Amino acid sequence: MSVIRSIVAVSLALTAYNSVAQAKELVVYSSRQEHLIQPVFDMYTEKTGVKVNFITDKEAPLMARLRAEGTNTPADIFMTVDAGNLWQAEEQDLFREVKSDIIEGNIPAQYRAESGKWTGLSLRARTIVYSTERVDPEELSTYEALADDSWKGRVCLRTSKKVYNQSLVATMIESIGAEETGEVIKGWMANLAAPVFSDDTALLQSIDAGQCDVGIVNTYYYGRLAKDNPDLKVKLFWPNQDGRGVHVNISGAGVTKHAKSPEEAIKFLEWLTTPEAQRIFADVNQEFPANDSVKPSEEVQAWGDFKPDTINVEVAGRRQPEAIMLMDQMGWN
Ligand code: FE
């Protein structure tokens, strides 16, 4: 017992010393995969000498771990995808408030929490994809129009259990109301060509293979598949261009409530929003930089310009419970 106590005492003393003498290490809990974060973390280490250690897992176990570790957590930063998840983490009181002119200057307000507890670092559009063999893009217009009878037996969707669809529906509720959103979902369900998919890539492959004609996916899944399959018979379509625009979501991060090196963590988060980091962070996953002074990669630019929905992504979190209930009511599995 006393041995354990003295180890704890020593490590606490070291922690205290480290934070005073400027941490040379940071710890990130990330639900983004290693190959998407390692390049930019390495760049930071090279630049500053600060080592960035990380563990990766799905967002739910990482949040559970942060809760369980409480004040003892080694994590300085929590990084994940989707405003719905970031909002959940904020609700669970896992983040601390960060007031940073650098972050506010680099990231548009609709892509970060008003509280300052998290910020977007990259953007992805959740848009319509269609078969180049069986769909004339002239037939396409809005997300809502996929509920029309003309799409009967032609629509494919991912499961409603995925936060991406919950966020899409949450923002629709905010924009067009729960009643109309419910009608749209009912129409989508009536038009399904196949049971819901567990991931966006399988959905894209089913359009390519002829099982579905249209679907809704995140752009980077399309980018990855198209890169590996130049003959892919699927294209992106930007819906709602005469209205609110295409649903855009984020990947992002915040400094943990019990960070051991909060000052260093803030500096790192600030750096992640700078053009230097933004370029790599977005490009490795074929995403759009959240800092709008930075251009996307040529691959991504080739998808063409579109009008994004500029709704504050916090809505995706705030209306998530309503969205889940509505999807369930309308039979979206
Ligand atoms: Fe994803």
From TrEMBL:
Segment forming the signal sequence: 1-23
Keyword field: Iron, Metal-binding, Signal
Amino acids binding Fe cation: Y220, Y221
InterPro entries from the UniProt entry: Ferric-bd (IPR026045), SBP (IPR006059)
SUPFAM superfamilies per record: Periplasmic binding protein-like II
Superkingdom, taxonomy of origin: Bacteria
Molecular-function GO term, any one: metal ion binding
Pfam families assigned to the protein according to its UniProt record, in alphabetical order: SBP_bac_8
One term under GO cellular component: outer membrane-bounded periplasmic space
Family statement drawn from the similarity comment of this UniProt entry: Belongs to the bacterial solute-binding protein 1 family.
Designated name of the protein: Extracellular solute-binding protein
Source organism per UniProt: Halopseudomonas xinjiangensis
